[in-house]
Specification:
The protein is of the alpha/beta class. The chain folds into three domains: 146 residues, 2-enoyl-CoA Hydratase, Chain A, domain 1 (Alpha-Beta Complex), CATH 3.90.226; 38 residues, no CATH class; 63 residues, no CATH class. The protein is built from twelve helices and four strands; from the N terminus they run αααββαβααβαααααα. The protein has a four-stranded mixed beta sheet with strand order 1-2-3-4, covered by helices on one side. The protein is globular, with a radius of gyration of 19 Å. The N and C termini lie far apart (47 Å). 45% of the residues are buried. It binds (S)-Methylmalonyl-Coenzyme A (MC0). (S)-Methylmalonyl-Coenzyme A binds next to helix 5 and helix 12. The site of (S)-Methylmalonyl-Coenzyme A has 22 residues, from helix 5 and helix 12.
Length: 285
């Protein structure tokens, strides 16, 4: 890249950063946090936005040391609906409190981990309110898992996409992040785990290559997502912030991209691709 191109890129990133912060402040985080003061209110709101599937905590009968959190939504490769986010909070609370176990296995039914957020639900909550509630609920569950004294193991079988990568990163295993392709950044609290596990350089690489697309393409899909990836890495690598400030900044970064026009367009495109792929499969039969 020559100097002129670099300057042009920097100027466009600066504009994007300014636009992103305006977008974030339409409704303030403070207003939303007083509206949804209690965890229960946020969890119930999510449940009302999207039904289908469930998440359950059980103990493994043959091995009493093992607790298990299982995603049940096999017809959609265990994609997470609002109801499942609600259940996941309860299941994680139960799992980390269970004094009889030392280990929590996190897995999906039917040989698939999870294909991320369920797209109808994701589209429905592509708003500032949706990003705030989903981010706080999922971040809180993943923090509980990560900070618990139990060993947590994500069983990564079949599909592990989008938000599912964040669940995996809060356990011991990391996988590719596809959120960049959707014009957003990690919003279930997984950004921190990625930076912690991989260090800044690899985390930026994972977030900006989004495993299935290159950085140039990601920049084309959404400049906002590109900037958000950088802000996410800086947030968890700089030394000048306390943990609460970092968490608030993570939420602001996520809210600056979730529900943006780039995000809505990419949800639409992904759904269209799934429908097209289904038609092609049925023609081949
Ligand atoms: C929270 C948010 C974030 O950005 O952070 C997210 O996580 S966004 C979500 C990010 N996740 C994604 O973009 C994954 C979208 N899904 C896919 O690309 C694909 O389904 C693969 C995961 C690669 C699997 O392909 P494969 O050909 O093996 O199966 P398939 O496509 O026939 O999927 C089986 C059935 O599950 C459905 N299905 C799969 N993933 C889904 C999802 N995330 N939401 C809603 N439905 C989904 C398909 O439409 C299909 O339903 P029918 O049988 O009715 O046709």
């Amino acid at each position: 890249m020559n100097n002129a191109m670099l300057l042009h890129r920097l100027a466009s990133l600066r504009q994007v950063t300014q636009a992103a912060s305006i977008h974030t402040h339409v409704k303030t985080i403070a207003q939303l946090s007083s509206k949804y003061e209690k965890d229960e209110a946020k969890e119930n709101w999510l449940k009302e936005q999207g039904d289908g599937g469930s998440v359950k905590y059980t103990r493994n009968g043959s091995n009493p040391d093992l607790g298990q959190v299982t995603f049940h939504h096999k017809e959609k490769l265990n994609a997470f609906t609002g109801a499942m986010m609600h259940d996941f909070s309860l299941a994680v609370r139960e799992a980390v409190k269970d004094e009889r176990t030392r280990c929590v296995v996190v897995r999906g039914e039917n040989g698939n981990f999870c294909s991320g957020g369920e797209l109808n639900f994701v589209e429905k909550i592509a708003s500032e309110e949706g990003s705030y509630v989903m981010n706080t609920v999922m971040m809180s569950s993943l923090k509980k898992l990560a900070n618990s004294d139990k060993v947590s193991i994500a069983v990564l079988e079949g599909s592990t996409m989008g938000g599912a990568s964040e669940i995996a990163s809060a356990c011991d295993i990391r996988v590719g992040f596809v959120q960049g392709k959707m014009g957003v950044c990690p919003g279930w609290g997984g950004g921190r785990f990625l930076v912690k596990t991989l260090g800044t350089a690899r985390a930026m690489e994972y977030l900006s290559t989004a495993a299935v697309v290159g950085a140039e393409e990601l920049h084309k899909v959404s400049k906002h997502a590109f900037v958000a990836a950088k802000r996410m890495v800086v947030n968890y690598s700089g030394k000048n912030r306390n943990p609460k400030e970092r968490e608030e900044e993570e939420r602001r970064i996520f809210m600056s991209v979730w529900g943006h026009a780039d995000h809505k367009k990419s949800i639409h495109d992904i759904r269209e691709n799934l429908i097209r792929a289904k038609k092609e499969k049925s023609h081949k039969k």
